[in-house]
Design a protein that fits this description.
This protein is mostly beta strands. It has helices at about 1-15, 240-245, 325-330, and strands at about 35, 40-45, 50-55, 55-60, 65, 75-80, 85-90, 95-100, 100-105, 110-115, 120-125, 130-135, 140-145, 150-155, 160, 165, 170-175, 185-190, 205, 210-215, 215-220, 225, 235-240, 255-260, 265-270, 290, 290-295, 295-300, 300-305, 310, 320-325, 335, 340-345. The chain is elongated and about 60 Å long. Mean pLDDT is about 85; it is low at about 1-30.
């Protein structure tokens, strides 16, 4: 376990240098078990030590994480032993637990997680998926012990049956229609759960003062940054600005609109031939309020999850900004940090 702790510490340091989203790293950012409270406080422990906090406790002897009245933003439970062990997430009897996302991860072969108890866990507020289960090793599994079941859907309040569908190294919980569950309830079969109002977000987009280096050249994008609870920033750019700047490079792409599908379309390896005059300019400056953007995006005809926000000008017109790293991963260009500037490099 000590080697794994050292590895995670190095991984965290690299993530901070590159401005990566730390919770997306395998095993969480600092601990095997992490509780991120709504005020930004992060607590946790390793799986070989017992610990407890407000609404949770972990017993290393039984390898059991118990939730008992927990109200937080995220819960992460990464398990690793190398011995094909069994692990337990227990919802204490009669307890109501609330979070935006439950993250589970098995980091070696044959690790099994069982969710037990007669309490409930309401997962609401995550824009991508309510349950994120990463299976790094083969023959790993997640089981809901009777009477617990998992229901939910794409919308708050949905109580549709959910099924875990393998997608690469992930188990994605979705409805029978294939819609990803952004809202989920883990509770005894047929049990009612209290209504949970969505937690208000701190919706401030911060103007980015420095240029971005594109293949070594400084470019003044109208860029914005979202900050997490620890002040770490994630960069967002307008899609057409990126298309305009990368036009003529190996990562060039065209942008369009599919009215029938109600989706933004992106065609890779194609020249940007559809400018609309909004490139590289906006009628506002400085920090702005924003709203989450749920627009569908088709990359070469395939629906792709790209996180986006909308900033609205004084006239009510909306400008959509996409997470830069999402664009890089989807469209084939590299995003990095050189210590002073964000760097974009095309193949």
């Amino acid at each position: 376990m000590k080697q794994r702790k050292t590895f995670l510490s190095l991984l965290l340091a690299l993530a901070l240098c590159l401005s990566l989203s730390v919770p997306a790293l395998a095993g969480g950012s600092l601990y095997d078990i992490e509780i991120l409270y709504r005020d930004g406080t992060l607590v946790g422990c390793y799986v070989d030590e017992s610990a407890s906090g407000d609404g949770w406790s972990y017993d290393s002897a039984t390898q059991t994480l118990t939730l008992n009245g927990l109200d937080c933003k995220n819960v992460y439970f990464s398990v690793y032993s190398g011995n094909s062990d069994n692990w337990t997430l227990c919802l204490a009897d009669g307890s109501v637990n609330k979070a935006e996302q439950l993250g589970l991860s098995t980091l070696s072969n044959g690790e099994h997680i069982t969710i037990t108890g007669t309490g409930s866990l309401i997962l609401q507020g995550n824009k991508r998926s309510a349950v994120d289960f990463h299976l790094s090793g083969s023959d790993s599994s997640l089981t809901f012990q009777s009477p617990l079941t998992i229901t939910g859907g794409p919308n708050d309040g949905d109580r549709l049956p959910l099924t875990g569908v393998k997608d690469g190294d992930y188990l994605v919980y979705q409805t029978a229609d294939g819609e990803k569950a952004r809202y989920a309830v883990i509770a005894p079969d047929g049990a009612s759960v209290p209504e949970t109002p969505e937690q208000p977000a701190v919706n401030t987009a911060y103007a980015t003062p420095r240029p971005i280096l594109v293949n070594g050249q400084a470019v003044d994008f109208d860029a914005y940054m979202l900050k997490d609870a620890n002040g770490n920033g994630t960069n967002y750019l307008k899609l057409r600005d990126v298309a305009h700047v990368l036009n003529g490079t190996a990562a060039q792409f065209n942008v369009g609109w599919d009215g029938a599908a109600g989706a933004i379309t992106i065609t890779t390896n194609a020249a940007y031939t559809t400018p609309n005059g909004s490139e590289m300019s906006t009628p506002f400056s400085g920090d702005q309020s924003y709203t989450e953007n749920q627009a569908s995006v088709l990359v070469n005809g395939v629906k792709t999850d790209l996180h986006a926000i909308t900033i609205t000008d004084a006239s009510g017109a909306g400008y959509t900004y996409f997470k830069l790293r999402d664009l890089g991963e989807a469209l084939g260009f590299a995003v990095d940090w050189d210590g002073t500037s964000v760097v974009i490099n095309t193949p």
